[in-house]
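Batch job 17 of 40 flagged for manual review because the log was empty.
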Amino acid sequence: MADRNPTSNDLQQYQGNYSEKGFWEKLRKIASKTGAKVVYYALVLYYTLADENTPAKYKAIIAGALGYMILPMDLLPDFIPFAGLADDWAALIAAVAYVSSAITPSVKERARAKLTQWFPKAQDADLGDLA
């Protein structure tokens, strides 16, 4: 997945690696390394996954992207400075693109509220197009 943009099928194959506990543990570990934008995208996906109105096909893509993110060893191990989290970021971006129609304003609001626990001074400009 590191040498090209991940497809929805690429992402879905990792859905078995997703767990809520693993997600929160990984997010806590990477928050200071990745910054507000990556954490925000992950939170938006997390809350979209939890939304009962999100279609099952989108939930599979989201669970796959988050499952890939929490894998301890993936294509680019996370301990490699900068590059180690690039493939995780690519998976999050791809998942957001695939499921964008299911991302509601209330999901964004919940993600933003949670984000302030890690980044109390985060501004919309720090969060990219998804803000």
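Reviewer: the log was empty due to a logging misconfiguration, but the result itself is present. The chain has a mean pLDDT of 86. Unflagging and moving on to job 18.
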